[in-house]
Amino acid sequence: MNNARVIYITGGAQGVGRGMALGLMSRGYRVVIADHDREAGEACLEELCKEVPRQAVPGASEALSFQQVDVTDEDQVKASLEATLAQYGRLDGVINNAALADPFLGPIESLTLETWHKVLDTNLTGAFLTTKHAARALRERRGSIINIASSRALQSEPDTEAYAASKGGIVALTHALAMSLGPAIRVNAISPGWIEVSEWQKPSRRQAAELSAGDHAQHPAGRVGEPQDIASMAAFLLSDEAGFITGQNFVVDGGMTRKMIYAD
Predict the structure, then answer these.
(1) Which of 184, 194, 210, 220 has its CA 20 to 30 A from that of 79?
(2) pLDDT per residue over 168-186, tens digit each?
(3) 94-115 pLDDT, tens digit each
């Protein structure tokens, strides 16, 4: 019988999601990538299975699988989670990572209601829907949920209202869910800062990172972040070692939100 834990990652085919999928597979988890982009999902499935052989998960016949799903469509979310349970027979963790990643949408005066709703529906409502339909299975396993927020939930640049609101909502949703779903399910958030993901995209969008010495030097940690940094935090929060941690938001940003900056 295979006792490897099963983790469901929305938006798992590219960027930070792909990094978490790889990081968790390498630690012995079975991973389900749920993503709306079929091209990205199939490429991720092929490439990650080469990077982490299936035998890395003891006894697993399917260490990684892909399901195409739009997290704003409740019927699709429900069907995807049902398919996951049918395939693996269990669900131990959910990472709500799917999001429209570009925060810059122009001045508030020209931000359309349609765009506002699209960002909130994907970034925030998608996490609600996934959690809603995963909760019963997670409760049976005393599982864990990780919501991917952003350091932009705590500080902002101009013209980022929709994105900031969605990520601030994720932080609030996290502690609300922790109270509602505990003690059977732990719920935490990770707020990444600048994570360089140029090389973690699907092949048609992949490119070499273009980072200057100044980009790295401005971070108190001395470098720009990498997807592996978020994967490591996610792995810890999913583990039994984090059993006394719930309702928290972990900022992983190289220290930038603690840096005082004055204009010259």
Answers:
(1) 184
(2) 999 999 999 999 999 999 9
(3) 999 999 989 999 999 999 999 9
DSSP H or E segment with residue 54: none
Does residue 262 have an active-site annotation? no
Domains by residue range for the chain, with CATH: 6-258 (3.40.50.720)
The model's pTM is 0.94
3 state SS of 87: helix
What are the strands of the beta sheet with 6-10, ordered from one edge?
Answer: 64-68, 30-35, 6-10, 93-96, 144-148, 186-192, 249-252
Query: 186 and 138 in contact (C-beta within 8 Å)?
Result: no
Cβ proximity of 190 and 233 under 8 Å: yes
Given the residues 8, 88, 163, 262, the one annotated as active site: 163
Q: Which two tokens stand for residue 174?
A: 């996290």
Do residues 220 and 254 touch, judged by C-beta distance below 8 A? Answer: yes
- Cis before 183? omega within 30: yes
Q: Of 84, 85, 30, whose CA–CA distance to 52 is shortest?
A: 30
